[in-house]
Amino acid sequence: MSPVSVSAAAPAAASLSAPLPLSAELAQHLRAGLGDGRIIPCLGPGVLADVVSQRDGRALPVTSEAMIIAMNGGRPMAPKLMFEFSRAAMNIELKRGRAAIKRFLDTTYDSDEWTRAAAHDWLREIAPPYVIDFNRDRQLLDGYASRRPALHQVVLGCARLGGTAYRFRLFRYDGEGYVAIEPELADPSLPTLFKPLGAPLPGGVRGVGGGATVGGGAGVAGLGGAGAVGGVGGVGGVGALRPESSYIASDADFVDYLTELMGGFGVPAFLKRRREQKRYLLLGLRLTRDTERMLLRDICHGAAEGPAGWALLPQASAKERRFCAQLGFSVIDADVGDLMRAAGGVPAAPAG
User: Fold this and answer.
1) Can you tell which superkingdom this protein's organism belongs to (predicted)?
2) Given this model, what pLDDT does residue 6 score?
3) Which domains occur in the chain, in start order?
């Protein structure tokens, strides 16, 4: 089936009119655009709604409230801290240090105990060349590492670093593990996974680099160096794999990261070129909080017009619809599961 035209898929400009229904034609258009890179997927917590522990069946904590309760040993925190995860994380950081937040995030997300999300298996088969994932888990990275060929690049957001203006760390997967590379060594032809809020790198990193802490840690991306794809050079040379992670978590992290993101230091230059005149598809990403809206506005800068993208938002609020209209996004009254069923792929319960 040939992709439908953009004008047929959505109105020229998003508005506060009724959300679009998810027709089979529109679903196929979106799936085709994801596969050829014309449409960039932006993933939120909803894509992980079906992920549970293989040990006890509990859900993976990905929403703000669930993460706060998990970080606090299964107990809610004070009402003013329950408002947003970054606020609660700031409270923990002030009391117990940044390392306490890193331990929680590593223990939670760098684990094999979780089932695979149906949405991630679906995306693995489509293999979009550029994916933006606002979650802190590693399922997107695991999926691309299991593909053949497995080569890809990962951009992790970081904050509160010294010695560099960049607020990202860049890694290349060589088939066995990740290698830290400098921004100028990025390969624009490789699939690239952008994790603005960070993640643990499955399998670890080879060579020498700064140890990661919440917000990025003391290291600067690129100390390990890299030569050709699959080879390692620079300071580190070939060495044992070591754990690596980077996170944006507390209020202080977000203040630093968003400030530098707005200044142009949060996105590598090759991704700035790649994103020009592209369209976006929001999957499982609600837009009720200022944090998500600020991140999205800057990361999607330079999008195409008519429309700039689509947002899968079942029962979207007026606030979400107004924000989408400002960005030129068309709202679709459906979730991730609806899209997978309509476009063909992995059957799943709704996860949006």
Assistant:
1) Bacteria
2) 44
3) 16-51+116-124+278-347 (3.40.50), 53-113 (no CATH), 136-207+241-271 (no CATH)
Residue 176's pLDDT is what?
Answer: 84
| Alpha-carbon gap, residue 238 to 230, rounded angstroms | 11
% pLDDT > 90, the chain: 77
Tokens of 62: 């990905």
| pLDDT at res. 35 | 97
DSSP 211-258: PP-BTS-S--TTSS---STT---TTT-S--EE--EEE--SHHHHHHHH
Give the side-chain half-sphere CA count within 13 A for 107.
10
Write out the two tokens for 283. 């999957």
Please report where in the chains the tokens 């929001």 appear, as a residue: 282
pLDDT in tens, 203-230: 889 864 444 444 544 333 322 333 333 3
Residue 238 is predicted with a pLDDT of 52
DSSP lists the bridge partners of residue 316 as: none
pTM here is: 0.87
What's the rounded Cα separation, in Å, for the pair 216 and 244?
10
CA dist 146 and 173 (Å) reads: 11
**What angle is formed at CA 141 by the lines to CA 140 and CA 146, rounded to 5 degrees?**
105
pLDDT at residue 2 is higher than 60: no
Phi, psi of 146 (to 5 degrees): -85, -5
The closest of 262, 101, 279 to 196, measured between CA atoms, is 262
Confidence category of residue 346, pLDDT binned at 50, 70, 90: low
Residue 106 host element (H or E):
helix 98-109
Q: What pairing do the DSSP bridges indicate for beta strands 168-173 and 178-181?
A: antiparallel
Task: Tell me the three state secondary structure of residue 174.
Answer: coil
Say if CB 336 and CB 283 are below 8 A apart. yes
Task: Fill in the amino acid letter for 198.
Answer: G
